[in-house]
TrEMBL record:
It comes from the Bacteria. Residues 28-88 are annotated as: Disordered. Residues 52-83 have a biased composition (Polar residues). Residues 1-25 form the signal peptide. This is Uncharacterized protein. It comes from Dyella flagellata. Keywords: Signal. Residues 28-51 have a biased composition (Low complexity).
Length: 137
């Protein structure tokens, strides 16, 4: 006769312990921490809710209650880049026949698009710059 391996009993016992542990963890109370009062433009909320208010500065803020206390998140719109016309190629090239990465840093929109304008190169020719300027509009 084969010796039985008590897998069914073991799994039922383990499942029972797991359920008991979960139930015990859910019923334990944790000490409440003193919450700071909400600041202007915010309200206190439960951990699953958030409230967004427009403050007097135009910024949005949200306050979340967590186990460690309240967390306030503030956000504002970033400044928009200048839409002024780009400088002349000669001004950026500084007398050279190309614009280097360091030269492009003088005009932030070009610095941001440097790899695109240079076709993944290390310099921008006058033709590439004129094509890039044409695509700006």
């Amino acid at each position: 006769m084969k010796k039985r391996i008590p897998t069914l009993r073991t799994s039922i016992f383990a499942t029972g312990l797991l359920i008991a542990g979960v139930a015990s963890a859910q019923t334990q109370s944790q000490p409440m921490q003193q919450a700071t009062p909400p600041t202007q433009g915010t309200t206190a909320t439960s951990p699953t809710q958030s409230t967004v208010h427009a403050g007097s500065t135009g910024a949005n803020s949200a306050t979340y209650s967590t186990a460690q206390g309240q967390v306030q998140v503030n956000s504002t719109m970033g400044s928009t880049p200048s839409a002024a016309s780009p400088p002349a190629f000669e001004q950026l090239a500084n007398g050279k026949k190309y614009i280097s990465k360091q030269d492009a840093d003088a005009y932030p929109p070009l610095a941001n698009d440097f790899l695109y304008a240079s076709h993944n190169g290390d310099r921008i020719t006058k033709a590439q710059y004129e094509r890039w300027v044409k695509n700006l509009n």
